[in-house]
């Protein structure tokens, strides 16, 4: 007996953990560098210290609630790394500003708490609630991503606690006594850069309707641009396994399947990229990966799992296998080359179910669907789950001749059953096992269709009767397997696509081509989309009832913070504006919009609403200090410029390394583009929008 390694989960786990650790240290470095450059090294240390402390709190809560580390958990922490420093930067920046105005450290930290804690908490809760549909959706995708809501929520709330409690405390202990500006608050924001920005803002507010129309136009263009962006449900996996599905005609003996599979195995073992080759004859492998489903036992089916070193060698081996199959590696079998995918299991990326009562009619309709899919250049391979019809032997009895020899139909059937399939006669004990002894005709006779007519039956009087005297053999084409769904006969036409394409885009194109077939379907027949599109639909359907609750909670939090219906509506309207930066970024870098990009868009919505809440709070504070509404808007935006730019720069730089991740790459691109666009929205569009919303008129001279 020998033991061979088939798959090594520890390698994949180590890779995922190492990816997180790299992003963790990059995020720390980025935060420290940004703060070093803008506010000094001590501020950088204070802000950077918030990251490990927040993660420590998250780990304690995870341990207390039995949350384990998995890909989604680690990804959620990576997402949180780009967000949890924002609160700390906002709090410490406010504290530094007040110290530069002449406040002592204690008073400055108290001011930072009183003016930023509430809007930051509201923004944190709004961002967390945005992930609520993922946490409570009852679907396969919901099961896969539910931890995202809990981990991101725990991380963001922990980061808020750290930002308003621990960061000010560290600031009091570590920040140096700042030298107050000679002119006080006004002099701080009277530099050349601030003066240019102030003039820009005054021009923006003066032309508020033009600015609003421009942003609305850009938003409409972004929505239209989403039609051009490639769509995706879940990305393919970066795991190194290559999967081969070997399907011989239904009814093929397991010996023939083994012979064909052995031939393919021998070829694979000669390839440098293949490190471990394991074949499963008559069934699929054990479920060693979440997004897999067990295969039904089938003597004509085999699955081969090939372990490679990395993603690059996996792709190289896949191309070599496909070329070898095209060159005739196993012409007697249908060989499918695929890989593992993230997310809910779907056997094929593109599939259609043809359903109806009559199998023959189903075959005709499925054949038309298959022809359309095969003719499409978007498809790589196409097949059906019923397979091709196979010839079967039927023996038609002549009842008159049966009666003449004294046999009944059942008696003749029993004797044929004995000759062809066999009947247990006795059993023989072998050690501790009992082995049945089966009596039947010799293999060279019963397995040869030409010799079946020469079988001899025994009549009622013991006479020997040639089978050809009581009937004749018929060869008929039959379906080897009939599948049903909801008790209705169902043929699934499915196929693979090129890795450069996305299943939703291909499905949309194929569905348009199938419309003439759908329009001409007989009564009682229908065609349904299956594959990854169906799984995506299930996920959307499961989350749909949760969106009204999410929106209601979001509005409730905002209204508690701003205490104004008008302000609440304005804050909520800023949520989708991140799309203006997201769509060009995805198009520029040829990235699809999938569930991870959607997660990034949700996070962006929370960031934009938080910035809006803080800006509105600053405007109200300025008005209470005696500024006119116009100058309150201008000065509030000037005062918020530095923390907004710092948090944006930290987030963008922290997410750049994540763009190389197979699973989280689209999320990183979404956050980078959305944060860039959102920063412009915060500093340029929000002042104009506030002026429109509250009917603020421009002024030439300060109030």
Automatic annotation (TrEMBL):
Q: Which N-terminal residues, if any, form the signal peptide?
A: none
Q: Which domain of life is it from?
A: Bacteria
Keywords for this protein: Membrane, Transmembrane, Transmembrane helix
Q: Which GO terms describe its cellular component?
A: plasma membrane
- TM stretches of this protein: 20-38, 45-65, 77-96, 117-136, 148-170, 209-229, 542-560, 567-589, 595-616, 644-663, 669-693
Can you name one GO molecular function term for this protein? xenobiotic transmembrane transporter activity
Keyword field contains Transmembrane helix: yes
Q: Does the keyword Transmembrane apply?
A: yes
InterPro entries, per database record: AcrB_DN_DC_subdom, Acrflvin-R
Q: What protein name is recorded for this chain?
A: Swarming motility protein SwrC
Task: Specify the species.
Answer: Ewingella americana
